[in-house]
Amino acid sequence: MIRVAMLSYWHVHAWDYTKQVQENPNTEIVAVWDELSDRGQEAAAKLGVPFIANLDELLARTDIDAVVVDTPTNIHRDVMVKAARAGKHIFTEKVIAPTLREVNEIIAAVREAGVKLTVSLPRLNDRYTLAAQEVLSQGLLGELTQARVRLSHNGAIANWLPEHFYNLEQCGGGALIDLGCHPMYLTRLFLGLPTSVSAAFGYVTGKEVEDNAVATLRYENGAVGIVEAGFVNAHSPFCVEIHGTEGTLLYGLPDEVVRVRSNKLNSQEWVTIEQPAQRISAYDQWVGHVLNGTEAEENVGYAIDLTKLMEAATISNAEKRAVSLSELQN
């Protein structure tokens, strides 16, 4: 049995991960730490486990094997480096950290300690993503020229997001670094890593973080990736468009069906593509890596690239220019 400590209930998905720990037959929650004592004590009481106020004390315990990290993004680096050095396996909410420099410090600590790291990038495992990858592997769209992925909700205008999600220091940004992570890593999956990123942030509700955002990814072959996210859009469907010289794939416009129209198919109409079974969750994959001594190489690779893209987008918006990934500080 892998004995897990929950590190913070800051993130809106912390209780979702709690449920995943509880439902996996190979893991159990044995302790809670939180940077806010009251919140941590409340969570620990609900779970019937000890609340340990001092993080170093918790990480020093030999009856804890692993941690789930849901802390504010700005302390991910400090928390995860400490956890790795203490020999604890790590499952973390995205992003790994806001900057490439911090990510590299975390990865170095993880590798040196030999612990297992997996990042929550859930849409890599969804059925529509797997269907899209199969279409691309068959070459049905030809040379890819554009991908557009959008994810948005009305959390900032319907007031259901926690107030700390608008805290620039804690979050490192707003809609793009939160919701926008998903369309960003999917665009990366479909098109590869771009040479540069441009971003424009909107502030519809006047908060200190953006609540409306678009990032444009530019590629050497002329392809363009478009990433859209927002906290101020009602009834905005999650959607994917992938375009190429031989065809187009659509999903979520507005129904949850993958459709393709391709010059390489006999039909000249839109064809519905069967979606395969969903892969197991990132959390369950992490448990497998811990038990089997394997590495989440693909997952961590995409997570590192995600931070590169997010950092470049943040710089681009601040400086009003395209930012090359080669500019980022290691």
UniProtKB/TrEMBL annotation:
GO terms for molecular function: nucleotide binding; oxidoreductase activity. Residues 17-119 form the Gfo/Idh/MocA-like oxidoreductase N-terminal domain. It holds the Pfam family GFO_IDH_MocA_C3. SUPFAM superfamilies: Glyceraldehyde-3-phosphate dehydrogenase-like, C-terminal domain, NAD(P)-binding Rossmann-fold domains. Residues 130-249 form the GFO/IDH/MocA-like oxidoreductase domain. Keywords: Oxidoreductase. This is Gfo/Idh/MocA family oxidoreductase. It comes from Paenibacillus rhizovicinus.
